[in-house]
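no rush on this but wanted to send it before i forget. theres a chain ive been looking at and ive put its sequence and its fold in token form underneath. please have a look and point out which stretches look like helix strand or loop to you. thanks a lot i owe you, the record is right below:
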Amino acid sequence: MQKWNRRATGPMRWCLTEMRAVRIAGGLILLVIVACFMASVSGEPMTPGNYSLLRWGPVLTNMTTESVTISWATEDPVTGTVSYSGMSGSTQDSSPNRVTEGQASVIHRITLDNLAPDQTYAYSVSGSPKEYSFRTFPEQGPIRFVVYGDTREQLPGWNQSTHHALVAGRIATEPDIRFVVHTGDMVNDPADRGEWDRFFAAAGPIMAHVPFYAMAGNHEGNTGVTQKLFGTPPWYVISCGDVRVVVLDSNPLPAVQAAEQDRFIAGNPGGSGNWTFVALHHPPYSADPNHPGGFRNVRERWEPVFRDWDVSAVFSGHVHAYEHLERSGIHYFTVATGGAPSYQLSPERPEGYMASRENTLGYAVVSIARSGLCTIQYIEVARIEDGKVIQHTEAEVIETVVVEHPHGDSSAIVWWPLPDSLADVRTILLHEAHASG
């Protein structure tokens, strides 16, 4: 008879320790074979106590031109390993390098260093049979990134699998996306492990290949769960080529933490890029009926800072709709359309209000071209009609905003809907710039 070592309860946690003849259910044999195969793919020898099935992940964060952090979770505390190698086209350049954690854990986090800029790497993590890939940030050149938020559930009607998964799946098909920003309220209850599992399953097609940057919404609050799961601080800067995205925590904070964030802001984190954007959870401006005009405390505290930084656009969530307005040369977007229950907006709109969309699932794409042209588009994946999700066969561009560089002479131009081509956009922009001169 075979001898099996069961390290924890549940049928998915068996490890083979000794081979002998035994009559056993075919399904269980298959699980063991798969487990042994997964360990061999990751490069980690199959020994008792160092293997556990993947629970969620992998997730890429903290990307630079020469490093990236990879996080994932397993069912049991084990020592995690990442195997990786550079790629030329569809082939690997060399035998994999391996980095192993110093101690066993359930949530694993490994940083890969000494990478090359704008280079594609193949990688795998212990606990998964799959091979993934990522591309390091470039030193310069065109940049495209995605912003969306508010993916939390409200069961039974709104859940990660049927709503968030639609948005994330469409984001995963966007070409040449360098990173994704989530503006908070990832889950309804940060203590609900099951919803986190569903969240990571829905966003998995993005996270394993494109850096994913999260922040705390009011549902995550001051729990520290975002830092624990993603390994990012509560406020930080994403630096990719000439683009800087400053991530702030707009939740009410204890005095000590508020002072820490004030010191971070005083360090001018948004002043070093040609293009500067801000991402936070609560919208400074909005047609939210519960906060007429938007969150005044956020606006009064940080809008002068945004002007000092020459911010081109501010992205937020919280109000479950799409909104766009412009004040003092800064564009404010609410993109709380990742799958949470839709909100109805007030007919009273703040000054500078340009566009809105209710009952929508979608995301924003920001594109910085070599020419210096910045285009921001809201992409709708599905409509909500009478509580039902009506998915578009092809994603629809609802609004296109072309933003001139903050040091340029011409103002932004907004189209509703999209012009026939981006070439037309560029032509019209140049015409307007010449006319203003």
